[in-house]
Amino acid sequence: MEKVLILLVLVILGLTVEAAYKAPRRIHTLFSVECGNYFDWQTVGLMHSFRKAKQPGHITRLLSCTDEQKKSYRGMHLAPTFEVPSMSIHPVTGDRYPAINKPAGVVYWLKHSKDAENVDWILILDADMIIRGPIRPYEIGAEKGRPVAAYYGYLRGCDNILAQLHTKHPEQCDKVGGLLAMHIDDLRALAPMWLSKTEEVRLDKAHWGENITGDIYEKGWISEMYGYSFGAAEVGLRHKINDNLMIYPGYAPREGVEPILLHYGLRFSVGNWSFSKADHDEDDVIYNCGRLFPQPPYPREVNMLETDPNLRRGLFLSIECINILNEGLLLHHASNGCPKPPWSKYLNYLKSGTFAKLTRPKYATPATLEMMDDKIQEQVDHDSSRPYPKIHTIFSTECSSYFDWQTVGLMHSFHLSGQPGNITRLLSCSDEDLKLYKGHNLAPTHYVPSMSQHPLTGDWYPAINKPAAVLHWLNHANIDAEFIVILDADMIMRGPITPWEFKAAKGRPVSTPYDYLIGCDNELAKLHTSHPEACDKVGGVIIMHIDDLRKFALLWLHKTEEVRADRAHYARNITGDVYESGWISEMYGYSFGAAELKLRHTINREIMIYPGYAFEPSIKYRVFHYGLRFSIGNWSFDKAKWRETDIVNKCWAKFPEPPDPSTLDHDNEKSLQQNLLSIECVKTLNEALHQHHERVGCNRGNSLFASKGDNTDEGVISKHMLANDSEELESVHNDRMGIPSSFRFWVLFLCVFSGLGFLVVIFWVHSGQKRRGMKMKHHRVRRRSLYP
């Protein structure tokens, strides 16, 4: 009996100790939604991932609906729900701003929910998120007085007059959002101020401008985000900022990082498949039995699409996101009495052990838990005591075969160059073009609305997409880099381009010379900038600090529009534009925008070279810019001649091979080196195309009649090597098989002759069998007649 009592006491003590240990670690997850199909399917996805990831604690949906909406609302059962009065239309001002429901819902929950009295740690998420693994605030670095949050770098209002107007402590404004993990006491202090500052910023229409808020729509849509940052600054709450825990599908995590949260707020794609939540604004997919979102490629297809391991990881995250959403929809339909859907390969995959294994809960790695530095490095000269600053490379393109082959070349050279950091293609396309576009998988891509035809003036000027795309990327992407390298698509990288090597610094970007921008020296600059003396003739390659780019990008766009509209000064003697059509307005937009901010460049002539043009043999140029025609003897290359030719989607298509180096004149050393650079440029392009065709599965055995789609012989386009380029172009474009017409005639004749011969043989064999069959039949009849 004594042993039983001792054992009982030990068990009680153990339970007491465990309860005491767990008491300060109670976690509650919150997310805010409104009544409607759009938030309902997101709720199903988030709730499914919450369970699948084994997230500890409870979860509550803060549901903001009007009484009228509740009458017809079908989704009350989708999640544990706490109803919150809707503030979509402000009760005092009448302002319609649904995003205010988030802070208003949190304030109401803290005041009226019993759950709020029995919790220690709060995790606040958005509905459009997928949880990949358990998130315990105290394990990811949150402390009382120091919340953890994701980085929202586009909140530029923290650095300007907006913060100075709306908080007494602008220096404490943190650019954060998305994932918020904090102690309940911190949330109690912050929540009322979060709501109040949201109302305050929302009313400040005078400062809704994009150059102040970073809001591209200039409608105050992100007032709630500023309300959070300003409210936290007001109560003295500084964040530990983490840029690894959360990732947008479509982006690749850094090496060693295991993201725990997917935020599908932006369009993302894998190959020709893409997904955007905005396309499903009114989608009743959860109430429509058997409906799922369009299935993404399978993992084995992703392996074929991308060879770079890190970029492939990004694609796997993209398909994981949509597959978990679809798995959640499938389970939701089953739990609501929907009939079992018919068998399909995709449904079978979602129910397979392979998929279950791939989507098991993930856990943060040490790299995932690394926080961003509190201090931004002002000096970039490297020394052994500090790490190099992070770099991100970007380039702008449109939806066309012309830009696709350039993209293939640049991406191939990027991977060979040793360039640090990630690269992003800024793809400007109309909705119509995007539906037909095949090149989604050619590069990590940020999608941008096309401004080729100006939405206000109707002016057709595709070059404006470059500044417009940079601005859109800055405002919508999660950028973790300190320096941005901007390239053009028609470039081949030969080595790394880094701020520490070329001495770029905050306030002092580096660029390459564009000496033909004579407008910097005449009336053009005087008309379009307040500081014509600060106009630098630069372009091509740009290395700029992210803070400078954020201040500058909008001016780049506006000055481009301004110069483009100034038709009175298109003349060659003013602009240097040989066509006198305003084609280089974007280049002047860049120079005049920088001058307006007195942003002076370090001009470096050792970064970029045009193949076929003057060079210094002792310099190791980092970039080929093949924007101009270049030649060696009778061979030449001009990118403009390949504007309409689909080289990327034609198996084994390539550019005309340049001459063999052994055939060059070796007597003139400088001329020889110049020609070798030209050969290197085009050979790199052809190598890039060859690797691309291998990657997409072109048939090696029969390249002339290749396997995947509409393919062409690798020799077809190479026929341009003959003497007259223009004639060869015409012959190739008109005769896609590249076979002489006389040869085609004989091939056709042989095919017809062979076919007829085959029919004659079949007829003869058939006739012979029939005759033999008749003889055998008569023989059997005779044999039977011998027996009664």
UniProtKB/TrEMBL annotation:
Its main location: membrane. InterPro entries: HPAT-like, HPAT/SRGT1-like. Residues 28-264, 392-660 form the Hydroxyproline O-arabinosyltransferase-like domain. It is a single-pass membrane protein. Residues 1-19 form the signal peptide. It comes from the Eukaryota. GO terms for molecular function: glycosyltransferase activity. GO terms for cellular component: membrane. Keywords: Glycosyltransferase, Membrane, Signal, Transferase, Transmembrane, Transmembrane helix. The chain crosses the membrane at residues 743-765. It is found in: Membrane. This is Peptidyl serine alpha-galactosyltransferase.
